[in-house]
Design brief:
This protein is α/β, with parallel strands linked by helices. It contains eight helices and five strands.
Length: 193
Amino acid sequence: MNTENYIAEYLEMEKRMFDVIDREEMKTVVDLIMETYEAEGTIYVFGNGGSASTASHMANDFNKGISEFVDKKFRFCCLNDNVATMLSIANDISYEEIYRFQLRGKLQPNDLVIGISGSGNSANVLNAVSYAKEQGVKTVGFCGFSGGKLKEMADYKFYVPLDSMKVVEDLHLMMNHLIMYVAERKLGIEGCC
């Protein structure tokens, strides 16, 4: 197969997912983020690898991108952005606790917890989501493949039903930008970013 065919094949996977992802799930996640914003809750987000990058990107887009143009600011907290904290927890306690530990004693009723895991089976993400649920805080899982345990555990989800980490991560980042797009319009700051 030549390069053009590989490109076409990849883009076809992306297009197919745009047609099958659940738009009602998308609306629910957007509404939850806006409700948390209105209630002045903190949105905790985290993941591993590419999902960690998506979590960091999300915090940046809302804490700076949109918040630059509104008086009331978004309160995103990306738990994988402090490397020293994560490594000390991993070293002294365990890697599976790097996110749950950071949530302990901090969660408030109006907060939202978003765990991102392509496979849906990352132990550290599952532990944090489980803890949030125990505290009565709403949870969202961004997942792919079969959805793993996260798909079943999280209160709400954005699920990409495909066995391709690349495409799953692409659509998770797209969802971040879609949420941002809707938020801009709801807040009357169209075209700011």
